[in-house]
From TrEMBL:
InterPro entries: 4pyrrol_Methylase_sf, 4pyrrole_Mease_sub2, Siro_Cobalamin_biosynth. Coiled coil: none annotated. One of its GO terms (molecular function) is uroporphyrin-III C-methyltransferase activity. It comes from the Eukaryota. Keywords: Methyltransferase, Porphyrin biosynthesis, Transferase. SUPFAM superfamilies: Tetrapyrrole methylase. The keyword Transferase applies. It comes from Iris pallida (Sweet iris). This is Siroheme uroporphyrinogen methyltransferase 1. The keyword Repressor does not apply. GO terms for biological process: methylation; siroheme biosynthetic process.
Length: 75
């Protein structure tokens, strides 16, 4: 569900005032050896997830907490 609703979710959040530079991450197959993550600002997350070819199950996390990760790139 996270991946299928991501494009609409991201757009609605920004339309309702979420800054486009808000940190976000998509975590595919979390806690498994196959885990993959895509870090991005919310404005670019949909494209970055497509480029990485992530599949379900994928957890989407949006907000300042994402920037606390040591894996968060400094944009």
């Amino acid at each position: 569900m996270g991946l299928s609703t991501l494009p609409a979710l991201a757009q609605k959040l920004m339309n309702h005032g979420l800054p486009s530079g808000t940190p976000a991450v998509a975590v595919e197959r979390g806690t498994t050896p196959q885990q993959r993550t895509v870090f991005s600002e919310i404005k670019d997350l949909v494209n970055e997830v497509k480029l990485a070819d992530l599949v379900s199950p994928t957890l989407i996390i949006i907000g300042k907490v994402v920037a606390l990760s040591p894996l968060w790139p400094q944009f």
